[in-house]
Hints:
The protein contains 15 helices and 8 strands. It has helices at residues 2-14, 18-45, 52-88, 93-98, 100-120, 133-160, 163-181, 223-232, 263-273, 286-300, 308-328, 351-365, 370-384, 390-410, 414-429; strands at 206-211, 216-221, 236-239, 246-247, 252-258, 274-277, 334-336, 342-346. A hairpin with a 5-residue loop joins β7 and β8 (342-346). α10 (286-300) packs parallel to α12.
Amino acid sequence: MYVKIAHFIxxxxxxxxxxxxxxxxxxxxxxYVMQRVDVYYYHKLGWELTDPAGARAIxxxxxxxxxxxxxxxxxxxxxxxxxxxxxxxxxxxxNFMRHPQTKWxxxxxxGTFIYCLMVAATVRxxxxxxxxxxxxxxxGVFGVLSFGLLIAFVHHVFTFIQAPRIIQDxxxxxxxxxxxxxxxxxxxxxxxxxxxxxxxxxxxxxxxEVRSEDGGYxxxxxxxxxLDWASENEAMVKIDFKPGDYLLPGEKLGVIWCESSQFDAxxxxxxxxxMQGPERTDDQDVEFVIDQLVEIAVRALSPGVNDPFTAINxxxxxxxxxxxxxxxxxxxxxxxxxxxxxxxxxxxxxYAGLLDAAFHQIRQxxxxxxxxxxxxxxxxxxxxxxxxxAAYQAELRRHAELLREDVQKSYTNEKDLQDFMERxxxxxxxxx
Length: 432
């Protein structure tokens, strides 16, 4: 259940409507509350800011200014999103939308507009005139604070669109995802003992295939509920996909070993707990966030941009990410019950897949860009010293050999080639 809640919260964080809508509702309620406060304290405070005509002027001016600036903020946001999409890739739009600053600014202006309209509607002139002094004062304060919101928004936009800032933002999100998933898969802390080594146990009942109902990307898998069901019914579940994979309609998801009477419930549960959508997300998909860094580097290496410094920055960040993954360890993909009996087996990450996602496309697009190739071999040499696991070392060696072959075919300057081969020899000597 907690995976579904986390997935829903993450969807709200990436939505552009939730925070402004919530702030608009708060402004609506605040307008009503302030009017009641004004009625209660009207003869007690003796606070006189202005007359009814002045109150209307203040409120209408603040409301008109707020909604005008809200339109400007929205226009600037669209320009920034368009620029970031074309320069760094459309997948980075989610990162910008996740940031709360723009939503708070839009919500602040929309809320100010609604509040001022509500209060202005209660101002009455004539013999039975009524001026809610505290409410009008609060509206004026909101108008002043709006200037601070605008300054904060402009600062945020100018900071965010800088390449180093975007790269660091993606890296921070990648580290958050690693902290959640590695090496503990998608289980909460209370269930982590289910990852301890166990035994296969007797295969319960017969196995049947589970097929998907709709196509789409797997965004998250609720392993906790699947493990609970399998443990309670002494069943076993095997899932053939991981978050980030694309499912075809009617494709085989996996298999369930259980009694015939329990299969329908198990099948429906697995389908529910494998959450799908039209796009990949960073809920449980580390490779998706790695792809974001890779996309920035690849676009920087395109002839139209020709920015090897940004690509080198991405390579260094990827090296730090791989180091963290190696130190934490990969999830085994085997979940056991409290008695150590295997209940759930899932597809999981491998060093080959992670290193391919991190370096393949950069290497392929860096052919002929000497500085990037040198940076790649340097980071591979440093990664080689992180751990001595045979599978990890073999994958690093494979990438280094692929890079060497590309360099030998693309370098035209002998001295540049000699420089690369010297660094390649450093790679070969690392951790030996």
